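Project standup — Tuesday

K.O.: blocked on the structure for the chain from last sprint. Re-posting the sequence here as requested.
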Amino acid sequence: MTIQVRELARTDWKRFFSLNETSPQGSVFCTESWVDTVSGVLHRKQEPKIYIAEKNGEILAGCLVMANLERRTSFRDLPFTPYTGVIMDHAVSDLNLIRAIENAFIDTLIKPHSFQLKLSPDYLDPRQFLWKRVNLNPLWTFRITKDHWQRHREKIKTEKCIDQVEPQTVCQSNDAALLQSLWRMTYTPRDSTLSDRFLAHAIKCQWARFYICRDVSGEPCCGMLYLRYRNIGYGCATFHNGKIGREYDRLRFHVLDTELNGQIDVFDWCGANVPSRNTYKADFMPLLTPYYQLVHGTGSPDLGWLVSQRAKLGVLLKKVGLRK
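H.V.: unblocked you, prediction finished:
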């Protein structure tokens, strides 16, 4: 029997979440708790959908996307979500089977639609999508492994002039009012309403933790939304009151040191694609890690195509005498 791709009924979503628990590409962003968090900020004309690839009734892989209910042929990444992607069952290791699963998603879900989805950094070989003429946009994130942190911890501590962090300086907090106040100081009025709604739901997320750092006067000055799932920690968002100094470094050092000396093996900064946010992450000597976004039929031609068309237009204008 061939591999079939179909939408998974909402009543069966538990099967996808169970797949995510053991998938090599599984992440906190494909958990039921995170889907509930993001669903709270979706527009009423948007909703999450799950598609699966199955054979003989057995789920081999799954894909979590956001559907546009007005344009039923349009699928996008979930908001506030670094990546979800295609996740495979942990028992799927044969290369021919993997290629067959990818082809099934390409032919059934991706190519017939306007499609945009970021794969997990743990999806190590996405070349089949490229070979089947699905655009692959390269993206990057910073990751720090437990071993890498142990090798560079003292150097980072010295360069950042970080003394022993007192327990009362950095701590976990679920004070909703405090978190909201710091959050609103960080995000612009244009996106503050949506961000407020997201934070309100994120506080309830099963995997979420919030770290707060206080300044010398004891006032909270910065914080981090941190997610922990399986053996990976995610620095999902940071926020501050605009008057931070060394406290920001203390916060990040404390979170990294606490978590990488604890239950996780990898810390993911959830992106290294915005120049203004790149430097403060790079200061902690992370490993630059690529991941990819699948793009098809979005109406956005790639840069190489635009350059070639511009050159052709220039030649044409010269021929007709409109350009010297």
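K.O.: great, moving the ticket to review. The longest helix spans residues 303-319. The chain has a mean pLDDT of 85.
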